[in-house]
Amino acid sequence: MEWTRIYAPYSIFTDSSSPRVLVLVDRFQMQQAIDQCEIHLMTASKLSQALKLHLSDKYRLDKLTSQCLLTLSTMPKINNLQSTPEYAQFSDKLKAANLDLVMLITNPSN
Questions:
Q1: What is the residue range of 60's domain?
Q2: How many domains does the chain have?
Q3: Is the pTM of this model over 0.70?
Q4: What integer pLDDT is reported at residue 110 of this predicted model?
Q5: Whole-number Å distance between alpha carbons of 12 and 57
Q6: pLDDT-based confidence at 10, cuts 50/70/90?
Q7: Cβ-based neighbours of 17, under 8 Å, separated by 6 or more
């Protein structure tokens, strides 16, 4: 039986609850809940790309990371991301992926 049916017959994932719920489900290694939260963030969330990337980086939500990076298709979008407070909290791995995008956009022939 799924844990969500046991503990909550409705979705506990909203834009306001997702960051706090991720702390708990990550701490207690509740993979099904992590997956459900990732799905919410990918499909229904109105959170900023910067916050989604921060959460995906911190909690290893690889599908969400990929989806967010795909939306960064222009230099203005990347520059806007880099000017957010969340960007300072990104891991080196995520910043390197961001740099790869910059390189692809500025040198599309390589």
A1: 3-106
A2: 1
A3: yes
A4: 62
A5: 21
A6: low
A7: none
